Amino acid sequence: MAKKVLIVYAHQSSGSFNAAARNAAVEVLTAQGCTVDVSDLYAMGFKATATAEDIKGEVNNAENFCYLEESKLAWEQGKLSDDIMEEQSKLTEADLIIFQFPMYWFSVPAILKGWIDRVLTNGFAFSQEKRYSQGIFKDKKAMLSFTTGSLESMFSPTGINGDMNVTLWPLQNGILHYCGFQVLAPQIFWAPSSAVAEDRKSMLESWRTRLQGLLEEKPLSFISLDCFDEKAFQLKPEVHEKHASKEFGLTVGIHLNKPLPPHSQMKAGC
Questions:
Q1: Nearest Cα to 23, choosing from 41, 42, 4, 36?
Q2: pLDDT tens per residue across span 160-176
Q3: pLDDT digits (tens, 9 = 90+) for 34-52
Q4: What letters, b where the CB count within 10 A reaches 16 and e where it falls short, cover 64-93?
Q5: Is 181 within 8 Å of 97 (Cβ atoms)?
Q6: What's the rounded Cα separation, in Å, for the pair 166 and 251?
Q7: What's the whole-model pTM score?
Q8: Region of residue 259 (phi > 0: left; psi between -120 and 50: alpha; otherwise: beta)
Q9: How sure is the predictor about 1, in pLDDT bands with cuts at 50, 70 and 90?
Q10: What is the mean pLDDT of the chain?
Q11: Rounded to whole angstroms, how far apart are CA atoms 42 and 46?
């Protein structure tokens, strides 16, 4: 069965390397029979701020407005703004979501963070009962595809920017995995702006090659929600004991005061 892909794209210029990476994804995935939809956030003028304007009609508590609660209620009542509902509809239909963006300040551009804040609303994308390995989007795949301004060596355990695995943890675990997505390894284009034309071309060719088998890739590994107790959400004693003699921690975030597992946020099977 043909897959549906949503590319959430956040770059201002149609002549950028990010645009070229987006276009490559559209071309290769479409050639494989996929239906590809692109949300071009800057072209759409997508609103980045999460405010009461995102809710049609009166809010429940205007005096003490809480976006988390109000957006959940609005989602349940079909009162979210049209732009949010349209993006949620695209997301619901998609089997794979690719976030294409330039890394800003070790994270995503504000307009993309706004998409995350406004579209992944409480109830629609997560709940207290449905998150992490039991999350709402556990049957969908998602990945980050982004450019950096710094060289790969600078994002290493000995580099000035620090380990890229640590940088990726809040995005891949705290957002994508939290919502249940099966998270594919990121596609990182290291400092294309300072690379020669031949190297930029090689980066795009590598991306095109990966895209050929992207839908069949295995996701990154995260710890199952079943490994934590239901009261304080601490690792169960038997899980802790099982890994007590291991050389590395379980994940970047849940490291048990051990060395971080190398490449665990960048390569499947690590």
A1: 36
A2: 999 999 999 999 999 99
A3: 999 999 999 999 999 999 9
A4: eeebeebbbbbbeeebbbebbbebbebbee
A5: yes
A6: 10
A7: 0.95
A8: beta
A9: low
A10: 95
A11: 6
- Which residues 6+ apart lie within 8 Å of 241 measured at CB? none
Residues 40 and 9 sit within 8 Å (Cβ to Cβ): yes
Secondary structure in 3-state letters for 24-56? HHHHHHHHCCCEEEEEEHHHHCCCCCCCHHHEC
Nearest residue to 262 via CA among 152, 131, 157:
157
Long-range contacts, 222-225 (Cβ 8 Å, 24+): 222/132, 222/133, 222/173, 222/177, 222/183, 222/251, 223/133, 223/250, 223/251, 223/254, 224/132, 224/133, 225/131, 225/132, 225/133, 225/134
Q: What is the DSSP string of the chain?
A: ---EEEEEE--S-TTSHHHHHHHHHHHHHHHTT-EEEEEEHHHHT------GGGBSS--S-STT--HHHHHHHHHHHT-B-HHHHHHHHHHHH-SEEEEEEE-BTTB--HHHHHHHHHHS-BTTTB-SSS-GGG-TTTT-EEEEEEE-SS-GGGGSTTSTT--HHHHHHHHIIIIIITTT-EEPPPEEE--GGGS-HHHHHHHHHHHHHHHHTGGGPPPPP---GGGB-TTT-PBPHHHHHHTTT-SS-SSSSS-TTSPPPTTTTTSTT-
Confidence check: pLDDT of 25 > 70: yes
Query: CA–CA separation, 120 vs 139, rounded Å?
Result: 16
Beta carbons within 10 angstroms of residue 183's beta carbon: 24
Average pLDDT score over residue span 119-148: 97
